[in-house]
Structures are given as C-alpha cells and as structure tokens.
C-alpha cells in the first residue's frame, strides 16, 4: 500500500486525525506513568525499608548505602536495555518495544512485592532483590526512547515539544503515585506494620496497573516515521554501529544534558530526601507519612512545570527553554537543603516545590530536543542510548554520593555543591548544541538530519 493510501498518514511524518493524536498522548502518559511508578517505588522503598529488611547485617550506616547502591545498580543496565530497545525499535518499530518493556517492568515489581527478606532466606534475599532491580533497569532503558518517539513523531510540527512532554509527565506522575501509595500505606499500617507488610502492597498493585497500561498501548498505531522507513525498506541493519560511528560526540553531549537534570531529580526520585528527612538518628526525624506527602505534592508541581516546559519549548525553542530551566534549577539547588534542614515540613515541601520549577523546564522539552538531534533511521538508538548514559552519569549514584558526602563532611552543603556542579555541566552541554526546533523528522530529510547539531562541527 502506498503512503498516500495509508489511512491518516501524511508524508511529513505526522498523523492527521486529532483523535489519533490524543490516543497516542494518552497511551504514552499512561504507559510511562506505570513504568516510572514501578521504578520510583523501588527507590522510595530503598530509602525507607530495604536497608533494614534486606541489608541489615552490614550495619545501620552501611546497610543504607547498600540499599541506595541497589537503586543505582539498575542504571548500569539501562544502556543494555537501550541498546536492545534501540536495535529492535529501529528495526521492528517503536510499538513492540513499548509492550515488551511494560511487561518486563511490571513482572519485576510484582515479584519484589512477594520477595522474602534477609531474616527469612538469608543472603538470597538481597541477591534476588538486586536481580529484580537489574530487570527494572533493562526495562527503563528501553522504555523512554519508544515512548517519546511515539509522541514526537506523531505530533504536529508546531507542537512537538508539548506532545513530547506527555511521556515526560509519566515521571512526576509515577513519583506522585508511588509516593502517594507509600504515604497511604504508612497511614494504614504505621510503624512496625509498614515494615512488616505495608510497603509490599504498592508493589503488588503494579500487576493491575500493567494490565491497564498494556491495554491502552495495544490500541496505539505505530509511529508514522517508522512506517515510512519500513515501506521504503530503508531501515538500518546495524543502527547502533552507525550511531557511534557517526554521532558518538553528539550522544555524549546529549547524555550530559540529561545528567544535569537527572542528578538533581534523584534527590527525591532516588529516595535520598525521604531517607534523610525521616531518619530517626538524623538531624531532622520527621514522620514518614509527612515526608511522603511533601514528596507527593512536589510531584504535582513537577508535573505542572514539565508540561509548561514542553509548552514553552514550542514558543521560544528547546535550547532557550533549557537555559531558563538551568537557571531556575540552580536557584532550587541552593535553597533545597537550607529549607529541609529547618525541620519544618512546610519549608521542606517549599524547597521540593521550588526545585521542581527548574526540573520541569529541563525535562519538558527533552523529548523534542532529543528527537530532533538524530537522523530518522537511527533515532530510536540515539535517543535511548543518550538517555541511558545520561542516567548513569546523573541519577544512578546521586543518592549514594549524597549519603557518602554527608557522612564524610558532616554537612549537606557538600551535596549542594555537587548538585550545582551537575546543573552547570548540563548548561554547558546545552550551550554546545544548536537549536533544531522544527527540524523535519521524516526519512526524506535524512541528509539534513545528519548534519551535526554540535557547535563547531559540520557533520558528526
């Protein structure tokens, strides 16, 4: 069937039906929310209970570091997920990858919910816990690229950043849902009951959410850009090889852009603030339910500013939106711990909310920015691998680094300077890129897309 006869397809690489676009947006939001709910649920539980339940023999201090290290462990396997998903996505389509990653993530999360603790099965408990976290990492590494390309490649040219923000909303929504469920269980089963069984309920809920996400994603059509590539038989045989042969520097710079956002975001999504603020032996010792409530509220503000960041990205360009975001994020970084250290739940909430302004502006336009950086034939590999490497350089061990810095220096100011440094690194990487807002995404413009967006280079 020719492209002109394909229902809803236009040669520009978008689908014409408004209803189809809305379905794509809805499916990407639902799917990524479920994925990140699972991913962040682990990180929050690592800050609250996993140290005691799975790593206790290591001693109170080191057990918590091991729990945070298990959070970071998954990031080391994100590139594997990105490599596998990039190859499959560029060869067989975006949609099939989204279905596989959703099932993989949900199965791992549900199994964590029934996993015996160290007290029951000994060293096998932390080993199995980390293996399931590895599975989560592989799934997360493959999920993001497919979701953002489905959104951006279906979008009208003038609204790519806004459409691309839809899967980005899944991150704060996932955090909101994970923190909200844990907060609810902390109220229903406080104290020892939460430690005994309360934390498991949100993990078991994942099974139901996966069924919902699978049903919604199954209804979505394949990306029109991929369909055009498939009809022309122009799919790249070894997309990852082509990516690193021609665009290795671009992958690194794009990864650093995300690293600047991710390191700061993982103060909450990685469970560090939750642990720091609720630790009964620490300087604050706030109630678990109160802190989880504050994190849940900050997830709402993060969602709002991510959407605004996507909208602004279409108005003033991706690069300019990022620059504003980095400035706001730097302000949030320097305010965060002074507000948290007051011991006031209200000021802690304020610090988290202020931080989400910059996080939203440096996350909302990311999908459009990434999609416009890479040629159509290797785009899935490019965005997935850049994202996965950025996650390792940024959030993978941010909670562990923060914990180690506080223990070695005795002050949270060391963490502030670490986060500020990552923010500046993200700004520098952004300034190294040309703004390619509105770049045609279809295979007709592969030569134009292959021109390097890195300043000072004509081609990658």
How would you sum up this structure, described in words?
By secondary structure, the protein is mainly alpha-helical. The chain has 21 helices and no strands. The two termini are 35 Å apart. It comes from Microbacterium enclense.
In short:
The chain has 460 residues and is mainly α.
The biggest sheet, with number of strands, parallel, antiparallel or mixed sense and barrel status, is: none
- What is the rounded distance between the termini? 35 Å
Mean pLDDT: 85
What is the name of the CATH class? Mainly Alpha
User: How large is the radius of gyration?
Assistant: 21 Å
What is the total tally of β strands? 0
Strand content: under 5%
* Annotation field: number of helices: 21
From the helix content, strand content and strand pairing, which structural class follows?
mainly alpha
In which range does the helix fraction lie?
over 70%
Q: Indicate the overall shape.
A: globular
The CATH homologous superfamily corresponds to MFS general substrate transporter like domains
Low-confidence stretches: 1-16
Name its key features:
transport, transmembrane transporter activity, MFS_dom, Growth Hormone, Chain: A, cell membrane, MFS_trans_sf, mainly alpha, 460 residues, disordered N terminus, 75% helix, 21 helices
């Amino acid at each position: 069937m020719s492209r002109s006869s394909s229902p809803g397809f236009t040669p520009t690489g978008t689908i014409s039906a408004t209803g189809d676009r809305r379905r794509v947006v809805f499916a990407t939001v639902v799917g990524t929310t479920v994925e990140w709910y699972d991913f962040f649920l682990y990180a929050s539980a690592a800050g609250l209970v996993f140290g005691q339940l799975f790593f206790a023999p290591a001693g109170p201090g080191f057990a918590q570091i091991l729990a945070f290290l298990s959070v970071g462990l998954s990031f080391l396997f994100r590139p594997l997920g990105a490599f596998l998903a990039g190859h499959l996505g560029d060869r067989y389509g975006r949609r099939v990858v989204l279905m596989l990653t959703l099932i993989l993530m949900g199965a791992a999360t549900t199994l964590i919910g029934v996993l015996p603790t160290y007290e029951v099965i000994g060293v096998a408990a932390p080993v199995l816990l980390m293996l399931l976290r590895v599975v989560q990492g592989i799934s997360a590494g493959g999920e993001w690229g497919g979701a953002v390309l489905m959104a951006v490649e279906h979008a009208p040219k003038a609204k790519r950043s806004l459409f691309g923000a839809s899967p980005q909303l899944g991150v704060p929504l996932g955090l909101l849902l994970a923190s909200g469920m844990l907060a609810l269980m902390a109220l229903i089963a406080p104290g020892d009951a939460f430690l005994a069984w309360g934390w498991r309920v949100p993990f078991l809920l994942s099974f139901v959410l996966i069924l919902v996400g699978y049903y919604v994603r199954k209804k979505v059509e394949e990306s029109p850009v991929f369909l055009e590539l498939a009809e022309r038989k122009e799919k790249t045989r070894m997309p990852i090889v082509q990516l690193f042969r021609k665009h290795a520097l671009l992958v690194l710079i794009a990864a650093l852009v995300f690293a600047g956002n991710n390191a700061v975001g993982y103060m909450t999504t990685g469970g560090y603030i939750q642990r720091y603020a609720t630790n009964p032996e620490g300087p604050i010792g706030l109630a678990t339910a109160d802190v989880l409530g504050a994190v849940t509220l900050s997830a709402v503000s993060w969602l709002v500013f991510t959407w605004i960041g996507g909208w602004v990205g279409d108005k003033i360009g991706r690069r300019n939106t990022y620059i504003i975001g980095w400035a706001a994020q730097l302000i949030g970084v320097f305010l965060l711990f002074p507000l948290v250290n007051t011991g006031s739940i209200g000021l802690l909430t304020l610090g988290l909310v202020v931080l989400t302004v910059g996080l939203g502006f440096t996350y909302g336009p990311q999908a459009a920015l990434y999609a416009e950086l890479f040629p159509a034939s290797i785009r899935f590999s490019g965005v997935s691998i850049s994202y996965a490497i950025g996650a390792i350089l940024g959030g993978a061990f941010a909670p562990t680094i923060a914990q180690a810095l506080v223990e070695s220096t005795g002050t949270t100011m060391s963490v502030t300077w670490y986060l500020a440094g990552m923010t500046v690194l993200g700004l520098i990487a952004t300034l190294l890129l040309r703004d390619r807002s509105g770049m045609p995404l279809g295979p007709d413009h592969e030569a134009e897309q292959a021109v390097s967006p890195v300043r000072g280079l004509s081609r990658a």
